[in-house]
Amino acid sequence: MDINKATAKELNGLQGIGPAKAQAIVEYRQKNGQFKSTQDLSKVKGIGPKIVEKLGSSITVTK
Asked: Is residue 12 pLDDT above 80, yes or no?
């Protein structure tokens, strides 16, 4: 799933991402622009490196 294009509803379906984190991802993206890498997801409040690692190949970014 492309974290630069996914809606909060789509992100909510990812392992370890609930409604609040999904909304935080969308809000972060709106405020700061697109993610440059999947590792940038850890910059979102409440999402740490372990969650990013767990998501692994299920997330992508397009530029």
From this structure: yes
pLDDT of residue 63: 76
Signed CA dihedral, 33, 11, 45, 43: sign only: negative
Q: What is the DSSP string of 16-40?
A: T--HHHHHHHHHHHHHH---SSGGG
What is the model's pTM? 0.93
Residue type at 6 in one-letter notation: A
Does the 8-58 domain belong in CATH 3.40.50.10420?
no
Both tokens of 62, joined, read 């397009």
> Which distant-in-sequence residues (6+ apart) come within 8 Å of 57 by Cβ?
none
